[in-house]
Amino acid sequence: MDRLTIQHLKSSVTDFLRSVSNTPIAELYGVTDGKAVGTYVERQFTQYLKQKFIFEEGNAAKGIDFPDIAVDLKVTSSRQPQSSSPFRSASQKVYGLGYHLLVFVYNKVDDDAQSVTKLIFENAIFVHRDHTADFQTTRGILDILSRDGNLDDIDAFLEDRNLPVDEMGRRQLAERILQNPPQQGYITVSNALQWRLQYGRAIRLASEGGSEGLTNLL
């Protein structure tokens, strides 16, 4: 078997989601916990890939589902497409999470007559790690830089955005931004000690044809 690559991962998504969408799932009937649904789908997708490819499975220490290729799988309901991600540093809101995101978006439909559930997958988006930063933060930074903004302008903007970082760390981040401007992010990243990621905009942009670093695999 071949080792799993990002291209292999992407090419496997459509067939897998089509097969799951057509399968009645008794164990998820009546389940309202999105985490339980996500765990089920993640487990099924991992088993599907293991039949075709060689790869290291993720664990708590690695922090992401496919550490070999730096991809984390998120499974979320279309009603409120969001998830959480470990907080490492405030710079993640500017430069991204440090890994790619594969996001499955489903609509859960319970069949009361048969006591089974069907998961209808509406989107499967892939976000390159360079574009997993916060949309408004990166947009504001790039706008300031396009208007010849300086270190003080960037520092003031970061302070206004209430990034979870002290004054010295914020100044160092501003200096880094001047030297190495970020890419435009597509995720809404809420400040917390565990990032809250919201995918509504990314889903819309991907459905409209995508952008650099953002594609819809369905």
Task: For this entry, give a set of tags.
3-stranded antiparallel sheet, 218 residues, PvuII Endonuclease, Chain A, alpha/beta, 23% strand
> What does the average pLDDT come to?
94
Silhouette: elongated
The profile of the biggest β sheet is: 4 strands, mixed
- Whole-angstrom Rg: 19 Å
CATH architecture of the largest domain: 3-Layer(aba) Sandwich
> Based on DSSP secondary structure assignment, what is the total number of beta strands?
9
Short description:
The chain contains seven helices and nine strands.
Question: Your description of this structure?
Answer:
With about 220 residues, the chain is an alpha/beta fold. It has 2 domains: about 150 residues, PvuII Endonuclease, Chain A; about 45 residues, no CATH class. The protein is built from 7 helices and 9 strands. Strands 3-5-6-9 form a 4-stranded mixed β-sheet, sandwiched between helices. A 3-stranded antiparallel β-sheet has the order 4-8-7, with no helix packed on it. The protein is elongated, with a radius of gyration of 19 Å. The two termini are about 25 Å apart. About 30% of the residues are buried.
